Amino acid sequence: MAFEQKKGLTRRGFIEKTGLTAAGAMVVSPMLGQIMDNTSKERKRRVALVGTGIRGISFFGKFLRENYSNKIEFVGLCDINPGRLQYAKEYIGVECPVFTDFDEMLQEVDIDLIMVTTVDATHHEFIIKGLSNDIDVVTEKPMTTDETKTQLIIDAQKASKAKLIMAFNYRYGQLFTKLKKILEADEIGELVSIDLNWYLNTYHGASYFRRWHGIKEKSGTLLLHKSAHHFDLLNWFIGSDPVEVTAYGDLEKYGENHSFRGPNCRSCSFKNECDFYWDITKDEKLMKLYVENEEYDGYIRDNCVWRKEINIFDKHSVQIKYANNVIVNYSLTTYSPFEGFRFGFNGKKGRLETHEGIPWRETTIVDQSKVHEKEMDQSSHTGDDNQYHEIVYQRNFEKPNRIEFPYVRSGHWGGDKLMFDEIFENKVIDPALHHAADVRDGSLAVLVGIAARNSIEQGRPVKIAELSELMPRKEKWI
Q1: What topology does CATH give the domain 11-168?
Q2: What domain of life does the native source organism fall in (predicted)?
Q3: Using only C-alpha atoms, what is the Rg of the chain?
Q4: pLDDT band at 25 (very low <50, low <70, confident <90, very high)
């Protein structure tokens, strides 16, 4: 079973069962995606979205409405910005009520599932309130941004009949699923270490420094906002718990590290001189969603990447030790000339590796300004006929095995649709691989990032036990 069965009734179900309404009892089926009425007929799950930024309205909004309207119905949208709310309602294409107050939405609307896509540092507020009201929650990564909030979420999950689901769509990516299968097939023997280098290019990487993500108090640094994806993948591949983290990092490219800066790209006098000038006026959706609604909350979407308030790292190097003695060497670069990654898995019997986006190893030259756009695009899940993911694994003293794996880039390596298929349609790719992620998975991913951030700031190794009461599992558990 991908998600643990919801053993209790929902808040509405409790009221109905206790006779406070004549509507009849409602029970939840074993998989999260189905709710049955008293005639054993499946009804749509009532969902509410909090956070109507670009991620919320696109991935958790329009994409879900277009693909899962037979399973869900939007019953509420919530954001602190009323202008964005109105645009979100139009863009998603729904007729549900909108709220600038989350508590009011909880009181006014009957909700089965809350989807959280707000600023990272506020995720815990909505997760905890949802769980406290026995409402299921799906949250974007990272689950939260510090150890105190992490424990509050863990405590809320323990006390709730509802479930928190982490939207770790990378796990579902077809390439990463293939790597997991090769590891599970013992092709390289017992895993010893992993090397992961992730490269963000000067388009995608720079975008984080234009937005709220560049402020540590909001994003927790990219070790939380971005690397939570990578740390969860590593935890999933290894099947054991992280126990100690040593990290190095600094802010050397963006922020104050430049001779000039402007208020934002639109009004900057250095447009012709700045390599990082970005013209938001060419993007109609972003203009309508952000620029036309700046008056409500003052949020500037095309901020200067050189502004002095930026206080996150732009280079990161992390070493992680696991309970089963696997070692990880990880790096994240935010101003690479190309976007991609290198994965290397070392086992006692051999090595497995793959790569993506390394220009001199690709058959097709790509426009770096469009790479991230293709990753987010949901319209297609296949690539150029001449492209493929190269996977190589080789046992000691044997010849290498080379796989030309079908190229999938759109929708996070095809993972977006597969993740939502499991959540809303009970379609499980392979139960043995445990793609579905819960509160423990979300906690461990952010605890690695928090430990890495603390290690950089304090100049020492940080044990996960310093941050959480979660007991590490040495044995293979996924």
Answers
A1: Rossmann fold (3.40.50)
A2: Bacteria
A3: 22
A4: very low
